[in-house]
Amino acid sequence: MSSGDGQQSKALTKPSFSEVQASALVESVFGLKVSKIQPLPSYDDQNFHVCIARTRVTTDGPNECVLKISNTESSKTPDLIEVQSHIIMFLRAAGFPTASVCRTKGDNITSLVSVDSGSEVKSYLVRLLTYLPGRPIAEIPIGPQLLYEIGKLAAKLDKTLEVRSGILFCL
């Protein structure tokens, strides 16, 4: 490992929230009561599958969500994360099978939370998306029809985003 790699991994701090801390985040930032929470696999961020408890106050909204806690390096560029969220919202409105973005109690799509780790304060960008049930493609037998459908969806996605970027450049 080169010294450059060591510096990169030091700058990029993957979150290490416990399930209790993650539940508290969902409740304090998004105003939703958690009935069940469990970690999801992730590479350099931290994700949780969250089941929302229904109360008299929260009768509408999602039943299941994904809490996404960005690593410290990504959290330094909140505009990029917000653009990703807006793209998700655009694609959903265009009919793609994407998650919905859940708003914070302050009606934002992300929130920057600071955590005192004893020796320093670290900031993490958090967002909540609706949970999409299904099986990862890695668990599905790959065949010509599936590859065709994936290619077709990728082409439609590309065309939709191409049109969207053209609209943005015209503005």
Largest sheet: 6 strands, antiparallel
- The overall pLDDT average reads 84
- List the total number of helices: 4
Return the string of H and E elements.
HHEEEHEEEH
Kindly describe this structure.
It is built from four helices and six strands. The protein is an alpha+beta fold and 171 residues long. It has two domains: 12-134, Phosphorylase Kinase, domain 1, CATH 3.30.200.20; 135-171. Strands 1, 2, 3, 4, 5 and 6 form a six-stranded antiparallel beta sheet that branches. The longest helix is centred in the last third of the chain and has 27 residues, at 144-170. The radius of gyration is 18 Å and the shape is globular. The N and C termini lie far apart (46 Å). Keywords: Cytoplasm, Kinase, Transferase. Belongs to the aminoglycoside phosphotransferase family. GO terms for molecular function: amino acid kinase activity. Its main location: cytoplasm. This is HYKK.
Layout: helices, strands, pairs:
Blueprint: H1 3-11, H2 19-30, E1 34-40, E2 46-52, E3 64-69, H3 78-93, E4 101-102, E5 111-116, E6 121-130, H4 144-170
Antiparallel strand pairs: 1-2, 2-3, 3-6, 4-6, 5-6
